Amino acid sequence: VRVDIAPGQEFCSLTVRNDAPDNVTVQLRGYRWRQGAEGEDMLDPVPRLILNPSIVTLAPGKRQLVRCSIPSDVSVPEETFRILVNELPSLAPDAVGLQTLLQISIPVFRSEPQARPQIVWSRRGDGCIALTNAGAAHARLASVQLRTAGSVAERAHQGFYLLAGASRALGPCGSAGEPVIGVEATLGDGSVSALEQRSAASQ
């Protein structure tokens, strides 16, 4: 699940639905989404992302339209956000014991038409193979394969996003095993791309 906002647009919407047999109350909050030095997701509060309503109580089988407003920042080719949908604890008298609460994180993108990702790979000094998005837009990678002279080793089985300007290390790190001579990525649309290698110094 993701939300895409057209360039120049400031409004979006999503629908929250309750498939549980009991009433559910959820809270929605918006954050600016960036990635750290190792590709880890980092969320910063962003007051300009407004959600209405931000707290919703749903009866079983019911749904609620939630509208969002995000004033545009024209200084960047792509803006990335996350909307967190958190189930709140039930206050019903019969709600006793440990409650398992659901959290859903929904990516939100607003990209200029010319913004494109550019994924390259490099070998770091610690032996890690790192992917870097040198482009101006996010990329969604379904899997990554590291090729050596004698075999192909699958290193990433779960899909992940790599935001513009971000890097992500693929383990295990170190000098053990055959050296990697190439990297192939399967993108979110199913296409396979042989990635360009760049020296760590050029990034």
Low-confidence stretches: none
Broad shape: globular
Derived from helix and strand composition plus strand pairing, the structural class reads mainly beta
The description of the largest β-sheet is: 6 strands, mixed
How much is the radius of gyration in Å?
Answer: 20 Å
Please provide the ordered H/E string of secondary-structure elements. Answer: EEEEEEEEEEEEEEEEEE
Determine the strand fraction and express it as a percent band.
Answer: over 45%
Q: Provide the residue-averaged pLDDT.
A: 87
Q: Helicity, in percent?
A: under 10%
Give the termini distance in whole angstroms: 32 Å
The count of helical stretches stands at 0
Would you report the number of β strands?
A: 18
How is this fold's topology laid out?
Blueprint: E1 3-5, E2 11-17, E3 24-35, E4 41-45, E5 50-52, E6 55-58, E7 63-69, E8 78-87, E9 103-111, E10 119-123, E11 129-133, E12 139-148, E13 152-156, E14 160-162, E15 167-170, E16 180-187, E17 192-194, E18 196-197
Parallel strand pairs: 1-9, 10-18
Antiparallel strand pairs: 2-7, 3-4, 3-6, 3-8, 5-7, 8-9, 10-11, 11-15, 12-13, 12-14, 12-16, 16-17
Structure description:
Helix content is 0%, strand content 52%. It has no helices and 18 strands. It has strands at 3-5, 11-17, 24-35, 41-45, 50-52, 55-58, 63-69, 78-87, 103-111, 119-123, 129-133, 139-148, 152-156, 160-162, 167-170, 180-187, 192-194, 196-197. Strands 1, 3, 4, 6, 8 and 9 form a six-stranded mixed beta sheet that branches. It is globular.
